Amino acid sequence: MKRLLSVILAIVMVFCFTVTGFAKENKTLRFNDDGKFTIVHLTDSHLDYPIQPFLRQYIVEMLDTVKPDLVVLGGDVSTEGFAPNEVSENPLEDSIKDLCTMLVEREIYFTVVFGNHDCQGGRTAEMNFDLYRKYGGEYFLAYDAVPELTGYGTHDLPIMSSDGKKVAFNLYMIDSGDCVFDENGNNIGYDSVHPDQIEWYKQRANQLKSENGGQVVPSMVFQHIIVQEIDDYLFYSVKNSAGALGEEFDGRHYLFTPIPKIHNIKDGFIMEKPCPGYYNYGQLEAMKETGDVIAVFSGHDHSNTFTVNIDGIDVVNTGGCKRQASLRLFTSGVRVITLDENNPTEYESSMYTVMDAAKKDGSQILSQGDVKKSDVIITGMWEKIFTLAMQVFYFINK
């Protein structure tokens, strides 16, 4: 029976690649004449309506400064329910409309992967998807590649070469789900990328490879929940539970505090314990075997902005684009990713934070009242202190 289901799934995937996948290879996305392509990864804003004035101003100024070729909405972006408030009959729809308007007015293409809060409180992924499609119009590039797959909206977006002759890079958007429950209905943790989605990814990667003369097409993956292997690379395993200092996960005990494995962090900050999926279905192993993915980007953990390389694949966490406590504001913002057509297996990546934008000449972020000049000063000092502390821990651990 399992083999029969696998065959049926494979047939469905082939059909969908032909009808849907190729339809999206419409040369909408391509490297610019200078060989560059810029992506903004915006995640975990948890927008209400009206959008907080400082946050809306930050998004506007960020878009006008970065001028991205594509924005990837990384999940939990607009999460408020349908309960009317004093200014809106439908805060969820109006927040999505406002965000889409900022992008459409600037003629910026965008796509989305959903997070663990996007399908709660009476919402469904389909409802959210329809709203993005309604207000994003031709600039909304997301689609549900194979409706039979677990989750909703898993798809890929090829980036054509600057001359438009071939697929030079590929972006996978994978729905990592919500939560998982035991046989009694108890919530036991977060969801993961499932086996059928992994199989879809492998088939799509192999298809692109075949069309590229037998060479893999360099790729990136965007999903909301981080891969499970992150705990092994950030925390020390201990024989027994360490109480409040540790936690048991995937049948092992980890010491989460006071010092993680700083020496494994290539850049950025770890400010909270990551929350990967409860089950590991082999996603990272599949990407390693396929050999096309150079990085997988996640959100979910709002204060983390680190990059960790696991067996040749960068595992990257983007901080939440939201108002966080002053001592964590230096992790609030978006991640800017720059691809180079002439060196596609390398990329540039850095956070462009609310504080970065607020310090620019002419910025109106501080005039909105939610973020004050004192926040900029305190955040700047704390960032320097935390950077120094991480450098010290790096050399101690190394």
Please tell me about this protein's structure.
α1 crosses α5 (195-211) and α5 (195-211) packs parallel to α7 (283-290). The protein has a seven-stranded mixed sheet. A five-stranded mixed sheet has the order 3-2-1-16-17. It is of the alpha/beta class. It starts with a helix and ends with a helix. The chain has nine helices and 17 strands. The protein has helices at 2-24, 53-66, 91-105, 125-136, 195-211, 230-234, 283-290, 354-358, 373-397, and strands at 36-42, 70-73, 109-112, 155-160, 167-173, 179-181, 187-190, 219-222, 236-238, 246-249, 252-255, 265-267, 293-298, 307-310, 313-317, 333-340, 347-353.
Q: In a few lines, what is going on in this structure?
A:
The chain is α/β, with parallel strands linked by helices and 398 residues long. Helices cover 31% and strands 21% of the residues.
Q: What is this structure's SSE topology?
A:
Elements: H1 2-24, E1 36-42, H2 53-66, E2 70-73, H3 91-105, E3 109-112, H4 125-136, E4 155-160, E5 167-173, E6 179-181, E7 187-190, H5 195-211, E8 219-222, H6 230-234, E9 236-238, E10 246-249, E11 252-255, E12 265-267, H7 283-290, E13 293-298, E14 307-310, E15 313-317, E16 333-340, E17 347-353, H8 354-358, H9 373-397
Parallel strand pairs: 1-2, 2-3, 5-8, 8-13, 13-15
Antiparallel strand pairs: 1-16, 4-5, 6-7, 9-11, 10-11, 12-14, 14-15, 16-17
Helix pairs in contact: 1-5, 3-4, 5-7
